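User: Hey, quick favor. My workstation is busy. Could you predict this chain's structure for me?
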Amino acid sequence: MADLRALVLTVARGLADHPDDVRLEETETPDERVLELSMAQDDLGRMIGREGRVIKALRTLVSVAAAKAGETRRVDVALED
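Assistant: No problem, here it is.
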């Protein structure tokens, strides 16, 4: 599932003013896979977007990509401060 990681990193680094500060960690359970995204404090607002639209769109994109890849678990993207 490296493709999902690459997808999230590509989108996050494309939006960030400090792309070198973007980090992604993965947590897995039998029911869920969580991609924990951390970035510079200045870039968090841009990643969240107005009323959360950008992060919601990224979560939707990741969910669709996971389903297409045959992932049976729920996949979520979480932002860390």
